[in-house]
Amino acid sequence: MKKNLKRIISVILTAIICSIMFTIASSAAVTDEKGNTWYGDQVAVDVTAGTEGYTFMSLFRPYVHGYEFGGHFMGEGEGPQTFVVIDTVEHDGTTWKPSGLYVFGESNYEVTYCCDVETMIVDGTYYKRVNLEDSGYYDEAQAAKIRAIVTNSYPYVSLEAMKADLAANGYDYAEELTRNEIIAAVQTAIWACANSNGTPMKYAKSYNVSDNLQWGYPLHDTSAESGLTVSGKRVFKTYEEVGTRIDSLVDHLLAQDATYAEKHEIVISDIEILDAVPVIGKGNTYEVVLCVKLNGSGSSDKDNIKLEVIVGDEIVETTAISMGTEVYTMKVEIEAGQTIEAIVSGTQVLPLGVYFYSPKPADVSGAFDEKGEAIPDGIATSREASQNLVAAAEGATPVYAEDSVTLDVKPVFGNLKLQKINTYGKNLAGV
User: Fold this and answer.
1) What kind and span of H or E run contains 192?
2) Nearest to residue 268, comparing CAs of 301, 237, 246, 299?
3) For the chain, what is the radius of gyration of the CA atoms?
4) ω into residue 63 within 30 of 0, thus cis?
């Protein structure tokens, strides 16, 4: 009886606390004249800076999940939304709070779309900004399609500008489109390029984000301007006209000309040691000509990037990377069997472009999956660690890349005399 009484009291107290917290959250939310609600004033996130290029951190936690929801299900049940990543370098050792409604190039966070249908985003995962072509999950042509979609879509152009462009390019429903429909269409078009070889999912049904907070609040709830009459928790309706607009917009976005990256838009996210040829032997020590190739050449005279060459545990060369140089050649001394490591690090200042956000591979030792089953120990790949993301961005980008090579040289001794002998051990004449 006492145990039951304690349990009842505990449940009641929990309910009261949750009610108070919800009341505080609701009273703190800001609603505009259209009925849209901004919940960002209630969000505070402790930030620790990432390392080795993984300096962007995902925000996907109670009670705010993502920036905006599309409010529509595509295919089997994907509810498109946009996600927030934080630049941890700018907020090193601080508590981050969103600066307000998202304004491209001005907000203290970035709004991204996802490139994976099946992988969930994991809160607090660190991301590295790299090139769309570096994903490893789709080819260069599909990357160019994604670049065109993101460049010409909300939120990187305003809703008004996007609608005007759509109307000018023969899209029939530009004026009727809502923000939620645009988010659903843009996300679905990206998925079609990144996950299904160009075959998009089709509109299925709609729901009211405000009534379905079990999926989390978006920072910016735009349910009020979606124009839907559907209401109630886990209540869905199908709107033929909404489906027509979304599906036709997906087709329109996929039909755009592909956009390939300009050379100055390439992030230095990979390097390769092309050659390590011993040229002079000094006993067991060799002078090696080292050729290091960068996959980009820098993008601005404001870049601050260095190339370090390490032999064993000693840094033997440090060179500033200058814009426009792709292959760096230098000479270092090394003993046979030693390893040469080349590391590029620093800050690259990028122009406006569309970039890929790659999750940091995770150590899954001792981890469990969603079903509570143990995951085999090891390192999860980037795609297993969290959802891949994509966004338009510009400005300072931390870069980090490394490569190594081991010099496998057998010592050569001077004055070596070769003799050929027969099976009886006698020297053969004339050899």
Assistant:
1) helix 179-194
2) 299
3) 28
4) yes
What is the rounded distance in angstroms from the CA atom of residue 342 to the CA atom of residue 290?
10
Cα–Cα–Cα angle for 230, 234, 235, nearest 5°?
Answer: 30
Question: Cis omega before residue 155 (within 30°)?
Answer: yes
Distance CA 297, CA 395 (A): 16
Residue 12: what pLDDT? Answer: 33
Looking at residue 403, its pLDDT comes to 94
- What burial class does residue 33 get, using C-beta atoms within 10 Å of its C-beta: 0-12 exposed, 13-18 middle, 19+ buried? exposed
Which amino acid makes up residue 109?
Y
CA dist list (Å): 240 to 72, 95, 243, 245, 287? 12, 45, 5, 9, 72
Instruction: Find the length of the chain.
Output: 431
Q: What is the pTM of this model?
A: 0.84
Start-end of H helices in 202-343: 240-254
Which one-letter DSSP state was computed for residue 263? G
Residue 210 tokens read as: 């405000």
DSSP state of 116: -
Question: What mean pLDDT do residues 207-235 have?
Answer: 88
pLDDT band at 281 (very low <50, low <70, confident <90, very high): low
DSSP string, 80-127: -B-EEEEETTTTTTSEE---SS--TTTSSSEEEEES-SSSPP-TT-EE
Which of these, 183, 89, 69, lies nearest to 129 by C-alpha position? 89
Q: Measure the CA–CA gap between 6 and 74, rounded to whole angstroms.
A: 46
Which residues, listed in sequence order, are joined to residue 30 by a DSSP beta bridge? 38
What are the φ and ψ backbone dihedral angles of 418, each rounded to 5 degrees?
-100, 135
DSSP-derived letter for residue 138 is S
CA 191 to the chain's CA centroid: 14
Among the residue ranges 250-254, 315-319, 371-375, the one predicted with the least confidence is 371-375
| Percentage of the residues of the chain whose pLDDT score is greater than 90 | 56
**Which of 291, 298, 296, 335 has the alpha carbon at shortest distance from 317?**
291
What the block records as the tokens of 270 is 């990979």
